């Protein structure tokens, strides 16, 4: 098996729900806790397995906002595992999931240096490295109903932008999606052979908004209120 | 990359220690620099061990969870960091045994001394090489992913060792001063090649990182309000003008001043004090070199944080 995610950049709305669900599930999961630093302070920070970044692709008017969730890609050629001196990082033979044994990690950061995707984060409170487990404590849990044996991020995504499955099986949903929608991997030139795939946004034409301009008094009041509450 | 002080001290001190140990064994075994007094050899060997110890202890300060450090010896089949750890631990007793044999036979070159001395040279150079490979093997940092990295590490380690040896031995030793000068010049050339090499544009860009290869890609929002582990560790930025000046300063301290003093020594016009000063300055210069090595390294994860190229 080669388990991983497919992320549909066409429909991801960048809501960060997957990151929050991930944090909620995993902070009490096998690699938890996902420590927060100064959670109620001025600059709250902490460990996350999944982060969403937002890009503008193309130039106006042919531009588009693309939201890009990034978590561990469970690479085929996982350099993060090869460079780990303690053997704390390992890749499971049976399903390709890359994990970190918290009892062995010495917190040298070397694996984070080797990961191109920023998937690994040091937990400064515990002194060990943490990363996405593909919710290994969900997907094999026989006590959960079968439809819930999926990663927390996949279950929670309101846009159904995330899919989980076996890439070794050509009939699985993830394999089909990648085939039909031309799914790609990120930074393939580095040769890590990431398992997670990204589906490109479907081509769209710019929508002409010039006719939509409203100048009524009501509209101006609405604009003013909008400005007031958003700034 | 964030330049971690502990790692800088580790690579500079240990590198100089191994370089000194290797040169000392070569000097003793081949007698190219004349016969060295035994006490001086022991003294220098001790200095090498001190430098190595300082380096190794300092490297452990970099660990967030040092109680598991002993496990770092286990994955030498795949990890250069593990190989470095293993070799460092092997080299230490080898140097000790060599110094012991040196003392026992009072500098006489018996079979055992020759064997141990050769092992010192081999292990020391191999250890510096593995230190360099820790960085050179990372495909994610193109400023490090080059054979120039281990070459630089070896050259600078041997250079510092050579300067120490020359200072302690006395600059009247023309053969030694000349060799040290050649090593300084070689190290300078290697470093200059390195700076030219990292000036070239690289392969990975924000386009390959996001998969949009035919469009402009700009970061709108990183998705977090405060810094993260990633921005702390990889998002280190120094203004390029300042970097340029630091490079110049580094070249002056590490290469130009030592070369100048060594050249003067060859025509016999230098006080021992000047030589020792220049050794200290060269150490400062190489610390600066190591700082630059980290500060100028740009990890590909920076592309996701808005960098257009690495
Ligand atoms: S994404 Fe990074 S952490 Fe995950 S397997 Fe690949 S290299 Fe390792
Ligand atoms: S931080 Fe932990 S998991 Fe990562 S390379 Fe070091 S020991 Fe291995
Ligand atoms: S939950 Fe779904 S839509 Fe929201 S950021 Fe994550 S992948 Fe995108």
Set down the secondary structure blueprint.
The complex is a heterodimer of chains A (231) and B (310).
Chain A: E1 3-8, H1 17-26, E2 36-37, E3 45-46, E4 51-57, E5 64-70, H2 79-83, E6 89-91, E7 98-100, H3 110-114, E8 121-123, E9 128-130, H4 136-139, H5 152-156, E10 162-166, H6 173-181, E11 197-199, H7 217-230
Parallel strand pairs in A: 1-11
Antiparallel strand pairs in A: 1-10, 2-3, 4-5, 6-7, 8-9
Chain B: H1 5-30, H2 38-60, H3 80-104, H4 111-136, H5 148-169, H6 174-198, H7 206-210, E1 217-221, H8 229-234, H9 240-266, H10 272-295
Bound molecules: iron/sulfur cluster (3 copies).
One iron/sulfur cluster (SF4) binds next to helix 1 and strand 5 of chain A.
Which key features would you list for this structure?
heterodimer, A: 231 residues, alpha+beta, Alpha-Beta Plaits, 3-stranded mixed sheet, two-stranded antiparallel sheet, 11 strands, B: 310 residues, mainly alpha, Formate dehydrogenase/DMSO reductase fold, 67% helix, globular, binds iron/sulfur cluster
Plain-language structure description:
The complex is a heterodimer of chains A (231) and B (310). Chain A has a single domain, classed as Alpha-Beta Plaits, CATH 3.30.70. Helices cover 23% and strands 19% of the residues of chain A. Chain A is built from 7 helices and 11 strands. In chain A, a hairpin with a 7-residue loop joins strand 2 and strand 3. The model of chain A has no long low-confidence stretch (mean pLDDT 94). Chain B has a single domain (5-305), classed as Up-down Bundle (Formate dehydrogenase/DMSO reductase fold). Chain B is 67% helix and 2% strand. Chain B is built from 10 helices and 1 strand, in the order H-H-H-H-H-H-H-E-H-H-H. Chain B has helices at residues 5-30, 38-60, 80-104, 111-136, 148-169, 174-198, 206-210, 229-234, 240-266, 272-295, and one strand at 217-221. In chain B, helix 1 packs across helix 5 and helix 2 packs antiparallel against helix 3 (80-104). Classes of the chains: A alpha+beta (231), B mainly alpha (310). Chains A and B meet through strand 4, strand 5, helix 2 and helix 3 of A and helix 3, helix 7, strand 1 and helix 8 of B. Strand 4 of chain A pairs antiparallel with strand 1 of chain B. The complex binds iron/sulfur cluster (3 copies). Residues 12-18, 52, 67, 69, 157, 159, 161-162 of chain A line the site of one iron/sulfur cluster.
